[in-house]
Design goal:
By secondary structure, this protein is mainly beta. The chain has a single domain, classed as Beta Barrel (Thrombin, subunit H). About 0% of the residues lie in helices and about 60% in strands. The protein has no helices and 7 strands. Strands 2-3-4-7-6-5 form a 6-stranded antiparallel beta barrel. The protein is globular. It starts with 12 loop residues before the first strand and ends with a strand.
């Protein structure tokens, strides 16, 4: 049995609330999601857009702020996508 190790470098805080995400390239597309947690340099959100790619840049807006972020990872769980974002 392999031991799972948490590789997080920053403390995360669980949050709830809506988030608006906008992909700007190749075609602008806006979608909504739910915040899962935040850290000093990023956030995690659940959404329904399964085709977000690592490295893709997005615009975001939620109750704690707004700005640009880069997709660090996306995984699909039970038909819903979850992504981790690094705020730029």
């Amino acid at each position: 049995m392999s031991e799972s190790r948490d590789r997080r470098r920053e403390e995360r805080s669980a949050v709830t609330g809506k988030i608006s995400l906008t992909i700007t390239e190749p075609v602008a597309r806006q979608f909504e999601g739910e915040l899962v947690d935040v850290s000093s340099s990023g956030f995690r959100a659940a959404h329904r857009l399964a085709d977000l790619d690592k490295g893709q840049e997005i615009l975001f807006r939620h109750g704690r702020g707004s700005g640009h972020a880069k997709v660090m990872w996306t995984r699909i769980v039970g038909g819903e996508a979850e992504s981790g974002f690094l705020v730029l």
